[in-house]
Structures are given as structure tokens and as C-alpha cells.
Amino acid sequence: MRLIACVLVLLSFVAHSLAVSATGQRVLALVEDGPHEYSSYFDSLKGRGYEVTTTAPDSVDSDTLFKFGERMFDHVIMFSPKMKHFPESMKPTVLVEFLRNGGNLLVGLSPRLSESWRNFAREFGLEFGERDTMLVDHFRYDPASDRGDHAAVLVGSTGDAPLSGGGLVSNQAVFSRETLSLQDPFVFRGIAHWVGPSPLAFPLVLPPSTAYQTDVPKITFESMSQWEASGIQKLEPLHRMENLLTGADAYSHDTKASLVSAVQLRDNSARVVFVGSTESFQNGLYDNSERPKQRAVVDDLTAWSFQERGVLRVVRSAHERLRASPDDVRPDYEEKPGVSRMYRIKDTVNYLLEVQEFHDGSWGPVTETLSPQLSAVMLDPYVTVPLVPENQNHSTLYHANLRLPDKHGVFTLRVNWKRHGYTYIVKNDVTPVRPFNHDEYPRMLSSSWPYVAGALSTMIGFSVFVTLWLSMPAQKPTSKTL
Description:
It is found in: Endoplasmic reticulum membrane; Membrane. It holds the Pfam family OST48_N. 18% of the residues lie in helices and 31% in strands. It has helices at 2-17, 39-47, 92-100, 115-122, 177-181, 283-286, 292-305, 449-471; strands at residues 26-31, 51-55, 66-67, 70-71, 75-79, 104-108, 126-128, 133-136, 153-155, 167-168, 186-188, 193-195, 201-206, 212-215, 219-221, 227-229, 256-258, 260-264, 271-275, 311-321, 335-336, 339-340, 343-344, 348-359, 362-364, 373-378, 380-386, 388-391, 396-403, 409-417, 425-434. It has an 8-stranded mixed sheet, with helices on both faces. The longest helix is centred in the last third of the chain and has 23 residues, at 449-471.
């Protein structure tokens, strides 16, 4: 029995070490209609090592996500845009708690999305259009996938067109270099949204400048196998013009238009991805061999949302005083060899930060240039210096020498590195900084020379005056004759 237990523990350790995701392999997929339409996408997840459980929203149990306080799944996929009410075990508060416990969420929506989904997206700083609105582009659409409504929008490279064709945001933490190098566009059929000013939310796929969002056109099917749509030749927006979402909004400074957006939680960097097209995951577009970028974009979005890419972790941090010589020691209450409990003003601190990146199923050195910084903070940063990387065998070691300011108090040695697409690196080391002790000041301060010179000049002047006064001959008094 002991041998069997040891073998099971060893197998679990090997499986965890070879995991494709940094957080786990268990995936729960909530599919509203037609799970078979996503068969190719789910088969690709299973082929990469994920354990996919597919169910309907009305079939989930009360302990689907949590059981006895433990998280039962590592990732949740929700392809249920028409769901009017969230199940009790999947309501927004439970989903937020799932994210706070380290889970990840991938949401696929469509023009048929319900008001519940719009309210849920607002919690993350995203504003989707109203129900039955979708993205339309009369200049850039795929004739092979078009149904007469010009809603099969081509997103990506458009050659020498004067207006931008949108496409992927150049973020190598989310998309691979191979995906970013593909020049052919991909098809998007769905709904767009606005990204608010939240610093935790950022767009991943931008719409073309010639696209706009309007009512879903009425589609009719001709007997000659031709799709037609009524009212397609004129622009009739659902809202007022100032509320109309267009592709040009993707380049605004305050509220950006986006097709796919992501959010990373501030505390644990859990990831949420909102995709405005469930058709991108269905077999019709996912298996489109004529457009290889179609599958590559979906796979990269899934890999990033499941924390396969852009995952960082802090292994350790250390700091100590940089000594001038081996004899430069402090009292025992302050420091021991290699450990500093307290610093003195104007000390030089040697700071080390060891970071690892999850890449290809294992932890190793950081592959990209991160450029983190170290700050000595007391309410506000007093000193900030860059951290210089040095690759080791299994990690990257960042180090810096920081000279403390001429200010005593409780300081925080802080590394606060946050970039879109990467796990946040936040490390705080609190340490007190004391002034000079009474016996640590030099015997003679250079700033006291003017006062010493003034005292010496006064004494010398007085001595000269007394010497001259005493050495002067006495004068005889003159007598007057009356």
C-alpha cells in the first residue's frame, strides 16, 4: 500500500510539473445551445491536456464551482449569451469569488446577449451594445461567409487601404509571434463593446475603422442560394449619433471600441476574457482552413485566459546593506551576516528579486524584457532605481543598489510592476531607517569650520589686543603750574 501511495504521489507530481496551465487543467464549459457546434474547439482543449466538463446552464448543481470551500474547477467557459438569469451556483457574486480564489473565466457573447450579461460586463468596466445589435462593415466583409448583412467583418490587414483594418493588439504576452506575423485577416461575426477607463481592462482585438454597430438586419433566404438583407444600403443607427459605436472609436483616448477585451484582477492577476462572438469558437469558423489565423487567434486567447502565457511569479526577495569593508559591522540588534533588520540614513541597500515565467508547461527564466523598478517609499517614493536582470538556470535574478535618502522613518522597498498581459509583480518589504546614533557622528564636522574660525579669530584678536595694551610704555602725567 505504501508503494502504491508513493507511485500515485509521484504521478500527480509529474502531471502537475508537466501541466499546460499554471493554475490547473480542470475546465467547466457552460454551453446554452448546440454543444456539438463547439466540438472541434473542445477537442483541441482535450488534446492539449485539459479535462473539459460540458453542461447546460440549467443543469449545474449548487456545489458546481465550490464544494466544502474548495474550488472544483480551474477555468470556466461560458457560451450562453441568451441566458436571462444566472443559475444560483453561477451567479455573479459566486463568479467573482471564483476569480478571487484563482480561477479564470472565458465568456463568449453574441448579438442575442441578455441584460444580465450586460450588467455583469459593467462590473469589469465594459459596456456592450443593446440586444439585437451587431458589428457591420460594408467595405470589409467576407463574401464567402456573408449572409447578405455584411456582418462577416474582415478584421486585420487590408493592404494599402487608407483606413485602418483593425486587428490584433501587438501584445506578445497574449498573442504569439507566429500569430502576429500572419498578414491575412480573420472573420468576426458578433457584437462589439466599449472599454472604460479602468486600468485593469484592456482591448485585445480592435474593429476596422469602417465598421459600425447597428440593428441586426432582417435576413431573407432566396431560392437561388443567395443571402439578402433589407435596409442594408443605408445607415440607421439604433441610438443617437453620439452613442453610435464605430470602428474609429477604437483609437479614442477615453473610451475604446473593442471586439475582444481582457481584465486582470488586481490582487491575484486572475484573468477574464470577453469575446463578442460565440461563432468564432464554433466549427464553421474555427475549422476554416482557408483562414489559418482564425484558429490561431482563438487558441492564443484561450491560452492566455487559462494562464498558459504571460504568467510570472516571485520566488524570493532579499536585501542587505552594502558594506564598505568586512570590518564595517553594526550592532547585533540591527543586522546579522546577510540579514538587515534596520538601516541608517544614507545607507546603500543591495536588493535582489528572483522571478520565474511559466513557459511551455514549466517554470524558467523570464523570456522578455520587463524593466521593473525598485522604489523606497514612505507615503511617496523618495528614490527609484531600475532593476538589472541576470538570467540564472531556472529563474531571472533582478538586482539593484539603492542609496537611502537623508530621512529617517519606516520605509517600504517596493516593486510594483504592472503591464497588460503579464501577471502583476508586486513585492513590498517594510524596513525602518534610523538616524545616526550619538557616537556615530564624526569628531569634527566640515560644516562647523566657520564657527571654529570665528571663535579662533575672536581669541586671537583678544590676545593681540591685550599684548599690545600691556606692552605699551606708560606716559608720565604732565603737571600744570598755577
